[in-house]
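User: I'll paste a sequence; please echo it back and then give the predicted structure.

Assistant: Echoing your sequence first, then the prediction.
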Amino acid sequence: MNSKELKQLILQEAKEIESYIIKTRRHIHQYPETAFEEVKTRDLVEKQLQEIGYKTVRTAKTGVVGILQSAKSGPTIALRADTDALNLTEENDVEYASTIPGKMHACGHDAHTAMLLGAAQLIFKNKDHLSGTLKLIFQPAEEGGGGGKLICDEGHLEDVDRIYGIHVWRELESGLIGLRKGGMLASADEFSVVITGKGGHAAAPHQAVDPTAVLVDIYNALQKVVSREIDPFDDVIITTPVLQGSDAFNVIPREAKLKGTFRTMDPVVRDHILKRIPEIVDGYCQAWRCEGEVIFNTGDMIPYPPLINDGQSIDDVITLLKDTELEHVSMDPSMGGEDFAFYLQKTKGAFLTLGIQNEEKGITAPHHHPQFDVDEAVLWKGTALYALLAFSTLFIE
C-alpha cells in the first residue's frame, strides 16, 4: 500500500467510526469535569487505550499518555487532546446536555478527547505502517490550570520530535482546517491592583483619601501603555473588567480593587507590561497619598506564554493534506491563550483548528458561552487529521 492509498484508507475508516466519535463526545459532554478533577474522563480514556493495545502512563494528576512503539526506527510524534470542562451552567436544550450543575464542556475539549480516541483506533489498526514512537497525550487542566506545563515538567516531551494539537474553532466554517505559521495565540496573564486609602463620607471627600478616584486614573493609564508605549503593529491588549469599590452610594471605601488580564504575542512586550503596571500604580499612589499593591497570576492561575507555531511543521501539514478531501485555510491569530504553548517551547510542532460553525444548525455561540456546541458531523475529520499526523513522516518524505 502506497502513501496515497493509506491516506484514503484512513479517511474512509474515520468516516466508518463516526458514530463512535459522536457517542464518546456526548458521553464526556454529559459528565464534565473541571481542572484536575477529570478522574472519570481519565479512567475512560485509559481503559479504552489499554483495550486497543496501547501502553498507558498516568500524568499531571488526572491525565494519561498512550504510547505505541513501532518496530521500525523513526521519530517520536506526540498528539495532544485536552480533557477539562469549565465552571459554567449549560443552556443548550439537547439530549446530551451536562448533567452536572455549574459544569459544562463549553470549549470543545470533549470533542478533542473523542477525536483522539477515534484516531487511536485507526493508528493501531494500521500500526504496521508506523515508524518510531507515538505518544497520545490526554491532558487535564488547560483552562488556566497549566496542565500542559505539568506534563512538560514531568518529562513527557523530552524525546518528542514533533507535537500536534487540534482545537475545534467556532470562528471557522464547519469542516475547514485552520492553519497559521508563527504567532497564533497570545500569552495570558492575570493581574489585580489593590488601592488602600482612607474611608469616609461621600459628602466630605476632603476628609478621606478616595481610592476609587485613584483606581479610575490607573484604569485609564493602563490603556496608554498599549496606545503610547508599544508598537501599534504588535498584538497586545490590556483588559480590566473588574472594578470594586464601595457597596453604598454615600460611603467612600477604604479599599478599591481592579482586576484584569493582558495578552500579547511577543515575550518582550509581556516583560514590558509586567514592569510597567507596578510602576504606574506606584506613581499614582505617591501622587494621591495612597498605598498600592499589584499581584500577578494569583491562586491556581498559571501564566501562559504566547503560542508560536513552527513554520516547517505547518508546511508539513499542508503537504500532508494534499490528495485528501480535508480543506485547509489560513486563519487569523487570536488573543486567547492556550497551554499548548508550553509544548512548543520544548519541541517543534503546530496547533491546528477544526471549524465547527454551522449557522443552519444554529451552532454559532462562541467558546466559553453557555450555549456553545459543536457540529458533530465534522468530528470524523478531526479524527482523520490526528491519525494522518501520526503517519506524517511517511506522507511527507
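DSSP finds eleven helices and 16 strands in the chain. The first strand starts at residue 55 and ends at 59.
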